[in-house]
Design a protein that fits this description.
The chain is an alpha+beta fold. 50% of the residues lie in helices and 19% in strands.
Length: 363
């Protein structure tokens, strides 16, 4: 069996080394970039969600803050004197649908546009909890006001969020409750607008797992996902999840933000970003990386070819020259000074050929 040439062995060695080296470089760099991209996207969804939460809390706080001045005036004025102020607070009804004051017996003494005046709200959660302190009530359908207010533009039943605060006299005794019903459609429009600007899907989840507000269409109540379990438990966290639409998302869960003296609704808030947002840059990087590695490999092969022609091929010619001298052929000694080793071997062969020639002449 004929032994491979030095040129062949050199080329095989370079090819094997190049394949191993480029493969390892691709795998390591691709993994590092994917890990970095995933971490960056986790941070992005958490940061965007925190920004949305802060903006929404500020919007809620502006409405909550309107109750303070009214509550102070109720302590010293006849409630009926605040009829116009309550009506003005409601305005067009786009944000606040109803505002009113109920005395400690649960009877509405004064309200916006005179709605529900004289009726009992004693059984309503906003009144019961409002007697105990500042209260924020989760979304609920209109009960007493369903037939008294204009229908929702969406055609869905009217739903409200509640704010309530107790009214106390100079002796600290609770004399009644001031309450407002926030239009849930306004809260949803606020969330959807911010979510769209931040390019994130948002879900406001109540402690029982019901989705109070969603920035995307669909039924997402009580999903068996880690993000929803965290939201129900009031825990923080982030991770990759496969949702019912069979798509993968990076999801983050935050607990309700403490904002000044704004009472809490008890919500958890979930944000998600499609995994394609991370996969596409990673694919682009992989494609570019492959192109760069292929270019590098081609240049390495070219350099290897040049190296073989300049430095390895002379050894082949030197070997052929040595074989011919050993066979007693009268050949011109091959000379090369491209490397020190070639120069030494060439000189040695030339000397050996002279010695062989001298010995033949003596005979």
């Amino acid at each position: 069996m004929r032994s491979p040439t030095l040129s062949t062995l050199t080329a095989m060695f370079v090819l094997a080394s190049m394949f191993i080296g480029l493969s390892m470089a691709y795998l390591v760099l691709n993994e590092r970039v994917a890990t970095f991209q995933e971490g960056a996207l986790r941070l992005a969804v958490q940061t965007r969600l925190a920004g949305l939460q802060t903006a929404f809390s500020q919007a809620l706080y502006r409405e909550w803050n309107n109750l303070g001045p009214l509550a102070e005036r109720l302590k010293s004025k006849d409630p009926k004197d605040l009829q116009d102020e309550l009506t003005a607070l409601v305005g067009s009804g786009e944000v606040i649908s109803w505002a009113g004051y109920a005395s400690s017996d649960g009877i509405v003494a004064v309200a916006s546009n005179g709605l529900l005046v004289g009726q009992s709200v004693k059984a309503r959660p906003w009144f019961q909890r409002g007697l105990e302190g500042d209260f924020a009530g989760d979304a609920h359908e209109a009960v007493l006001l369903a037939s008294k207010l204009p229908a929702s533009p969406t055609g869905e039943p009217l739903r409200f969020l509640d704010f309530a605060t107790p009214i106390k006299d100079a002796y600290g005794k609770t004399t009644g409750v001031l309450g407002v019903h926030l239009n849930l459609d306004w809260a949803k429009e606020t969330i959807v607008g911010i979510a769209k600007a931040l390019e994130i899907d948002v879900f406001v989840v109540s402690p029982n797992g019901t989705v109070v507000i969603s920035s995307v269409q669909g039924d997402f109540n009580n999903l068996d996902l880690a993000s929803f379990r965290r939201a129900r438990a009031g825990a923080l966290g982030a991770g990759v999840e496969r949702w019912p639409d069979s798509k993968t998302y990076f999801s983050a869960t935050l607990t309700e933000l403490t904002y000044s003296d704004l009472p809490k609704f008890g919500w958890g808030i979930i944000g998600r970003i499609g995994a394609d947002a991370a996969i596409q840059p990673a694919k682009t990087f992989s494609t570019g990386l492959i192109a760069n590695l292929v270019t590098f490999g081609a240049l390495l092969l070219l350099l290897t070819l040049v190296f073989v022609v300049i430095f390895v091929r002379p050894f082949n010619r030197l070997a052929e020259n040595a074989r011919a001298i050993a066979a007693g052929e009268d050949v011109y000694p091959f000379e090369s000074d491209r490397t020190r080793e070639l120069s030494i071997v060439s000189a040695a062969l030339a000397k050996l050929q002279c010695q062989v020639g001298s010995g033949s002449d003596k005979k």
